[in-house]
Amino acid sequence: MKRTRAETDFSHRHLSRRAALLGGAQLLFIGGLAARMRYLQVEQADEFRLLAEENRINVRLIPPSRGEVFDRNGVRLAQNAPSYRIVIIKEDAGDVDASLEQLSRIIALDDSAIARIKDEMRRSAPFLPVTVASDVTWEEISRVSVNAPALPGITPEVGLSRVYPQGSDFAHVLGYVGPVSDYDLSKITDPEPVLMIPRFQIGKVGVETKLEPLMRGRAGAKRVEVNATGRVMRELDRQEGTAGSDIQLTVDAALQGYVQARLTGESASAVIIDCDNGDLVACASAPTFDPNLFVRGISQKDYGALTGNKYRPLASKTVQGLYPPGSTFKMITAMAALEAGLIGPDETAYCPGHLEVSGRRFHCWKRAGHGWVDLQDSLKKSCDVYYYDLAIKVGIEKITAMANRFGLGVKHDVPMSAVASGLMPTMEWKQIYQGQSWRVGDTVNASIGQGFLLASPLQLAVMTARIATGRAVSPRLIKSIDGVEEPDRGGESLGMNENNLRKMRRAMFAVVNDRRGTAYGSRVIEEEMRMAGKTGTSQVRNITAAERRAGVIRNEDLPWERRDHALFVNFAPYDTPKYAVAVIVEHGGGGSKAAAPIARDITLQALYGGTPPLEAYPAKDRERIGTLQQQLRSIQPQAAISGRDQA
């Protein structure tokens, strides 16, 4: 059937309107798409370019170079050495299990190592590198590099690791570094990002931890381009971090090595302090340990051997060991009496071998007594009764105050771990901490360095330096930081009566140089090097009345743990004091036999700046000393012997 003209015209108009609407919609869509494309390509170009960069460019931290440590002559005590390691970055690895499985076919990785790696990755940010293996060989590094395309996220690196070239000589002074632990992080309020890098090394004990903020430095950063598998293609730029500060100690490596060797076979400690400026030129504890074992994590076997040793090789006995000072404290009791004007140097007291106080008998070490003795004789012969009598006159408060002035009962400012304050008691102290009133017998015990009194070898060396100089000498361990000298600690005058100090020094001189002195066997023959000192023996057990009646058991016949501690303090040369020394031999018996010979030897070593001539020793001892010197040279590390030549 034919359509009419009117119907045809209507159909054409309808189609034209539909086409126009469709065309308009298409134009609107194309325009919107064009506008969107312009927005993305022009206005948002920088943002999307940045996103693209972030997808292919990684920013990685560069651990700072740790500051090194030197002795007073420039000998390296702690340094950084190149160390090859392999790391994995979680966000680059993708399938971590597959990457580690592939890596285990190239280098040795046991199940425990893989478990440790995964644990560290769970606790770390995905962009931080986790150490897979450290101290790997160059051959292993090469194999990993060749297989890099098949090891996404795994990268070989060259880093720095701590090394202690002097070995065990400075273990208790320097301490050591080790991987950052959760415990370390818990002590820091706002840890730096570099500390979050697993197995990043920080100081754990000793100088390494006390000066950690200075020695750590500040981390740098680098931008690297990586491909789709996470393999590093190239380094785009690098901003180096700031290296840690270099530290110079006051300690002499050669002398420290000698002292450490001289203490071999003993559970002992020794401190040598420069009387002029307070420098600690030697600070040794024995036995010692190798700090290099701790740098990358010590084995359970090695650690067990150290902790199970009854001689406590991990303890820094020079600063944290506390002992009754014994008769080395008698100078303090005497100075308290002299300064209070309660005695004169010629006044005497009678020693029958004991003193009755409040119904209790306090014994002198010499059962038969010393008879009539004055100040010098009492110190020379180490008469106990003379000091019992002095203490009753002076009282504990004045004795303790004098001890504090001479550096006892004071925590000295040295950057070592667990520096102890010691204990110089007062009446109030006993009431607070013991819940008891002070008794006269407590004062009597304190007068000879027993009872509640406790002091460290460092404190006894400071005490001796102050007696020798009359100044408030304080110990200094840091000589300079980045070449900037630290203030010396020679100290101001103690404000003591110089005549009283001279009397005390003369009495100490008699202890060593008078034939009846307790340390006469350890005297120095060389006129210009002669020393003054004081022996000490501190009890670690009670001697019963029954044992005294039957005869006190000799130290040699007792188990090691029940023997007395042996002490000796001295300064030299007598006329112009240069060094003050303190030596404590744990359970060594008598101070004159065990501690004084060691102190004499290390004092001469310090004064001569090396092996002293045999002529400095008594003639009867020279053959023995010569043999000992040869033995010590074989024990000392060669680095320490030639320390002055390395500087």
From TrEMBL:
Coiled coil: none annotated. GO terms for biological process: cell wall organization; peptidoglycan biosynthetic process; proteolysis; regulation of cell shape. It holds the Pfam family Transpeptidase. One of its GO terms (molecular function) is peptidoglycan L,D-transpeptidase activity. SUPFAM superfamilies: beta-lactamase/transpeptidase-like, Penicillin binding protein dimerisation domain. Gene3D superfamilies: DD-peptidase/beta-lactamase superfamily, Penicillin-binding protein 2a (Domain 2), Penicillin-binding protein 2a, domain 3. Residues 269-602 form the Penicillin-binding protein transpeptidase domain. It is found in: Cell membrane; Membrane. NCBIfam families: pbp2_mrdA. PANTHER family: PEPTIDOGLYCAN D,D-TRANSPEPTIDASE (PTHR30627), PEPTIDOGLYCAN D,D-TRANSPEPTIDASE MRDA (PTHR30627:SF2). This is Penicillin-binding protein 2. It comes from Roseobacter litoralis (strain ATCC 49566 / DSM 6996 / JCM 21268 / NBRC 15278 / OCh 149).
